[in-house]
Write a structure and sequence with these properties.
Order of helices and strands of chain A: HHHEEHH
Mean pLDDT of chain B: 88
Distance between the termini of chain B: 45 Å
Structural class of chain A: mainly alpha
Strand order of the largest sheet of chain A: 1-2
Radius of gyration of chain B: 22 Å
Shape of chain A: globular
Oligomer: heterodimer
Strand content of chain A: under 5%
Radius of gyration of chain A: 20 Å
Strand content of chain B: under 5%
Number of strands of chain A: 2
Low-confidence stretches of chain A: 158-165
Helix content of chain B: over 70%
Largest sheet of chain A: 2 strands, antiparallel
Number of helices of chain A: 5
Mean pLDDT of chain A: 87
Low-confidence stretches of chain B: none
Order of helices and strands of chain B: HHHHHHHHHHHHHHHHHHHHHHH
Shape of chain B: globular
């Protein structure tokens, strides 16, 4: 299990870093769009769409990473007051719920993408994308979230980080 | 009462799972899956829910959230913000409760540069608190102002939470950001006045001490060199919106870029600090946007099942005036804030508040700013105030959680006063946005 988590860490951290870099790259793209427009060098009509899809994809690709880092905000103040046995039990229940809903996300994400592929659906804006491609981060996210919750189920520790993530 | 059943299923599921400490995003995801199965036709509803997740976050109007967070993280991780606080420290002369005023002044300056309340509290707690403790400041005048300044960060642009609220409630972002400025400054003024009065009446709470002597030049120059250039960030954000040069998203990108340029100008930009800022921005942004994605059909299911209309009809039968309705809405938020996090508060209440405000003709910007203040109160109210726990993390075992609650209490009352003033005089909020 430890070995599984070790390799999972590579996958999840890799996805997370890609997500973080993509989100920061949005700054550069929007600034470039403004510069091009005001310096009258032309226009980047696709910039808005790219920003939208990067933010969307980065959110789903990065969600398992945030889970691994204990960064998803949760009301754990009550949990910390319980003794460690009960806390482990509650943590296991939370992980099982996580596996269940992530699996549904994966399955129905796949069905949505598969339907779009079968029906040959495209998103027509400044750029044209096959819809299955746009939907594909969701089943991938569901799958990796399942793995991460599965890992937490067996490797849960008392050293859960205090949630300090917020605005 | 079919709608009552729907309301119970949706809100009950979210509430129960959050109490079980299921992460907020997954609590909403579970409720939506259940709602889609029960009210949206099972499998077809689930496919439609998944498709809706794409459009909920593939939204240009949400882009300022990561950008505002990035802006604050850059200034925080590179240490530029610390220099600004040192400069404010030099500028303020010997006044009662001096260090508390420096914390409030420095916090207000950083509020105009950062979109993150947590970063603000963590930074001020790390920088100011040890000095305050060394000088014998009481918890009430050391931890209290540092936690309270978070509220100012949420109101004064750039504010990531204001952008999220505007996006979820479909309010104009620029107007909501502008609407927070005067109430934010009002709050800062009230906090400073409170500190001065309280430490004048009881000097033991904030003992005076011999300050290092500085000439006027030594006081002014750090302000001119370390604080004034930072106004470039604020001007980039708000100035570009007011001048009509950029949309709110573009202004946020300009702000983030100017924060990067300033960090480079002060020779404080390193690969390490840049990577830390990128990583933290990614983590916080993904956390927020994933909640938005997972809660995407929550309000639609409530509306589709008739829960929104049913609850609204019941409320409107009471024939409330807009003022009473606003007071009730704020009370709901303040109570909810004791138990629930900021984003969940918005997601749970907006499906009811928006149609209610619409039916009663309440100004949306007034509602938005009032909501931000009420939501912010939840950060410092027991038992689950997030900033209380951030502060506990900063002070370690030096103070118990009850002492931290007590330190926050006077500022909770002051914020309630601000809320009451804005309730009675909405023009304080709507004055600036009316010029946009």
């Amino acid at each position: 299990m430890v070995r599984f988590d070790y390799w999972l860490g590579y996958l999840v951290n890799g996805l997370g870093m890609t997500s973080a870099l993509a989100i920061s790259a949005v700054t550069v793209l929007i600034a470039l769009d403004i510069a091009v427009r005001y310096l009258k060098l032309g226009a980047l009509p696709w910039a808005v769409e790219i920003v939208e899809y990067v933010i969307y994809a980065a959110t789903f690709v990065g969600a398992p990473w945030v889970l691994r880092k204990h960064g998803h905000v949760r009301m754990d103040a009550m949990l910390t007051k319980l003794n460690s046995g009960v806390r482990r039990f509650v943590d296991a229940v939370v992980s099982l719920i996580g596996i269940f809903v992530s699996a549904i996300l994966m399955v129905y994400g796949y069905i949505a993408a598969h339907n779009a592929w079968q029906e040959n659906l495209f998103a027509y804006k400044s750029l044209t994308y096959p819809e299955w491609l746009l939907l594909s981060p969701i089943p991938v996210c569901g799958f990796v979230l399942c793995l991460q919750f599965f890992s937490r189920l067996f490797l849960s520790s008392d050293k859960e980080a205090v949630t300090s993530t917020g605005l | 009462m079919e709608w009552g059943y729907a309301l119970l299923v949706m809100l009950g599921t979210v509430g129960f799972l959050m109490l079980l400490s299921v992460p907020v995003a997954f609590a909403f995801l579970s409720a939506n899956i259940l709602g889609a199965v029960l009210f949206l036709g099972g499998s077809a509803g689930l496919v439609s829910f998944v498709r809706g997740m794409v459009s909920s976050v593939a939204n240009y109007n949400l882009a300022p959230i990561p950008l505002f967070i990035f802006m604050g993280e850059i200034l925080f991780r590179t240490g530029v913000a610390y220099s600004a606080i040192n400069a404010v420290d030099r500028l303020i002369s010997k006044v009662p409760g001096r260090l508390s005023i420096v914390a409030l002044g420095g916090g207000t300056v950083f509020s105009a540069l950062s979109g993150s309340t947590i970063a603000n509290t963590a930074m001020l707690g790390g920088v100011m608190l040890p000095e305050m403790q060394k000088r014998g400041y009481s918890p009430a005048l050391s931890m209290g102002p540092i936690m309270a300044v978070g509220g100012i960060a949420m109101l004064i642009p750039p504010s990531a939470l204001a952008v999220l609220l505007a996006s979820l409630a479909r309010m104009p972002v620029a107007e909501l950001l502008a609407g927070g400025i005067i109430p934010g400054l009002l709050m800062a003024g009230l906090f400073i006045s409170y500190v001065v009065v309280r430490s004048s009446l009881n000097p033991r709470l904030a003992p005076t001490y011999d300050m290092q002597k500085f000439t006027w030049r030594e006081r002014i120059v750090p302000f001119l060199t370390d604080v004034l250039p930072l106004s470039l960030v604020f001007i980039s954000v708000l100035g570009s919106i007011i001048a009509g040069i950029a949309s709110p998203t573009e202004s946020a990108a300009l702000g983030a870029l100017s924060a990067l340029l300033l960090a480079a100008y002060y020779r404080k930009l390193s690969w390490r600090s840049l990577w830390m800022a990128i990583e933290e921005t990614g983590k916080t942004s993904v956390m927020i946007l994933f909640i938005v994605a997972c809660s995407t059909t929550f309000s639609q299911i409530l509306a589709f099942s008739g829960a929104t209309d049913g609850a609204l009809t019941l409320i409107l039968q009471r024939e409330m005036t807009p003022l009473v309705a606003m007071a009730v809405m704020m009370m709901v938020l303040v109570v909810l804030g004791c138990f629930v996090d900021q984003i969940s508060m918005m997601l749970i209440t907006l499906p009811f508040f928006l149609p209610m405000a619409d039916a009663l003709g309440v100004n949306e910007i007034w509602l938005g700013v009032m909501m931000l203040i009420a939501i912010e109160l939840g950060l410092i109210t027991p038992p689950f105030g997030l900033l209380i726990f951030v502060m506990k993390g900063v002070v370690g075992d030096s103070y118990g959680i009850r002492t931290i609650y007590a330190a926050a209490f006077p500022f909770v009352l002051l914020e309630l006063i601000v809320l009451a003033v804005l309730l009675l005089i909405p023009n304080i909020v709507t004055f600036l946005p009316s010029y946009l």
